[in-house]
């Protein structure tokens, strides 16, 4: 039995996971893939000079896996187990959005060289010393990604011999649905269905909602009780031990244009920000869109009373909420007051500001609903 299956069955036996046929089947398939890589009979992906002269081709890489299903069904948990227990050094796990930002940066550098097609050298650079590339939350939201993904992943799989393991909220045929120039993306869907085993994960238990059971998402007023509730939500969502809170990892999020955004706490698709850092600094829609695409849950602490006196901060907050809402990101917040009271009208012609903020209030209220919480990240 593989290390993954040992860990998985232990979680079920301990009651942390509930019996789920699709989840068990996915764990078993991931364990088989582990065995393929770890087995002493696994063949190297290169051939010697004599082999090349005789026309021999490298052994194909093990077949990859595409896990798709609703939010909270254990996709990221299985990916964590797979990566943590895979006993080879040539592995990498990365959030899909962060990976595509890296890809675009490498493409820009290659294009500066004006040396031809940039895709092959970028694929070679990404595949260096790598056998397994594992992604969380494959989702395609823009034509720039869609236009290059078929050729890039064909090169990674068929030329570089990298095995892809990924999770997504969508079945392959629904990726980039109704997107601009989607016809250029269709070969990528064909590639997934040809080169990866597509496994559903839509069991009856939404573990993310279970973990938030009994905890509200909007906490007011700001104070020790609200902070404790937000803190509890973070540890429930990430399975991180509260006693080790001082060591929660942070991150530097690349928001494009050579700029970055510091994320004080960043773990398993959950980010924690202060309002001051997120909306008190000069940030724009592209920054908030990057946050929304990178994290399935965002915790914002210390939201003050907004209004005309904090005009810039209020405008940024509106833009932030739009980005989170449109990407179905879960929001947990500590704030000065309830959403419907958050905008303080100053009178004397400030009615327009209040009117514009009403849409944000409506979205904040909807984002607390069970229907919204049940949606997958990026789901229409």
Automatic annotation (TrEMBL):
GO terms for cellular component: cytoplasm. Pfam families: AFG1_ATPase. GO terms for molecular function: ATP binding; ATP hydrolysis activity. SUPFAM superfamilies: P-loop containing nucleoside triphosphate hydrolases. One of its GO terms (biological process) is cell division. It comes from the Bacteria. Keywords: ATP-binding, Cell cycle, Cell division, Nucleotide-binding. NCBIfam families: ZapE. This is Cell division protein ZapE. It comes from Novosphingobium aerophilum.
């Amino acid at each position: 039995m593989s290390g993954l299956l040992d860990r998985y069955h232990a979680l079920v036996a301990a009651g942390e996971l509930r019996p789920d046929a699709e989840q068990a089947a996915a764990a078993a398939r991931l364990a088989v893939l582990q065995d393929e890589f770890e087995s002493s009979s696994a063949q190297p992906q290169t051939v010697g000079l004599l082999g090349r002269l005789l026309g021999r081709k490298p052994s194909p890489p093990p077949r990859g896996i595409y896990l798709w299903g609703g939010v909270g069904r254990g996709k990221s948990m299985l990916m964590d187990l797979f990566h943590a227990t895979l006993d080879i050094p040539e592995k990498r796990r990365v959030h899909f959005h962060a990976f595509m930002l890296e890809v675009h940066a490498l493409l820009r550098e290659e294009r500066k060289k004006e040396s031809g097609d940039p895709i092959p050298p970028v694929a070679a650079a990404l595949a260096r010393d790598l056998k397994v590339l594992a992604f969380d939350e494959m989702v395609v939201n823009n034509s720039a990604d869609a236009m290059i993904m078929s050729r890039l992943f064909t090169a990674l799989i068929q030329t570089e011999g990298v095995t892809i393991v990924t999770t997504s909220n969508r079945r392959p045929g629904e990726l980039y649905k109704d997107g601009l120039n989607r016809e250029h993306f269709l070969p990528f869907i064909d590639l997934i269905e040809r080169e990866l085993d597509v496994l559903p994960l839509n069991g009856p238990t939404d573990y993310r909602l279970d973990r938030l059971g009994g905890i509200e998402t909007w906490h007011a007023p700001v104070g020790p009780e609200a902070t404790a509730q937000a803190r509890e939500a973070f540890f429930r969502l990430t399975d991180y031990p509260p006693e080790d809170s001082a060591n929660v990892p942070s991150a530097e999020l690349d928001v494009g244009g050579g700029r970055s955004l510091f994320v004080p706490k960043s773990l398993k698709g959950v980010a924690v920000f202060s309002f001051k850092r997120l909306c008190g600094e000069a940030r724009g829609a592209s920054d908030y869109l990057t946050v929304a695409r990178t994290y399935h849950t965002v915790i914002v602490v210390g939201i003050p009373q907004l209004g005309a006196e904090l005009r810039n901060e209020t405008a940024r907050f509106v833009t932030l909420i739009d980005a989170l809402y449109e990407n179905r990101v879960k929001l947990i917040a500590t704030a000065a007051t309830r959403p419907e009271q958050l905008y303080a009208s100053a009178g004397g012609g400030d009615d327009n500001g209040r009117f514009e903020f009403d849409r944000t209030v409506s979205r904040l209220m909807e984002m607390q609903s069970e229907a919204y919480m049940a949606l997958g990240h990026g789901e229409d």
